[in-house]
Amino acid sequence: MVGSSGMLLTLGTVALIAANRYVVFFGVSWRPVVWVMLGEMFNNRIRASALGLAAAAQWLANFAVPVSFPRLSAIGLGLTYGIYAAFVLLSLLFVLTGIKETKGRECEEMA
Fold first, then answer.
1. How far is 65 from 27, CA to CA, in rounded Å?
2. Tens digit of pLDDT for each residue in 84-102?
């Protein structure tokens, strides 16, 4: 029994370290990119409305993850993280194929 509690402590420590690393690396990579990208991807004519809608969608997605986690994890952690990873892959594909580069362009130039 002592061996299993030591293993659980080790797994818990690894999970805590992994979760904290995720928060740190997400905070210095994708999190600021989303907000910068939202501010630059809309032209002036629709910027206020589009940014409000995009920010609301972002917050709803951020809310959906912690709300869905308990029910999904009850089914299985592998499935839960697999679903989240699939959404990450979809977002990466969307960014690579659907988001146009704005470097060197004025916001007024974008249609």
1. 16
2. 889 888 988 988 898 777 7
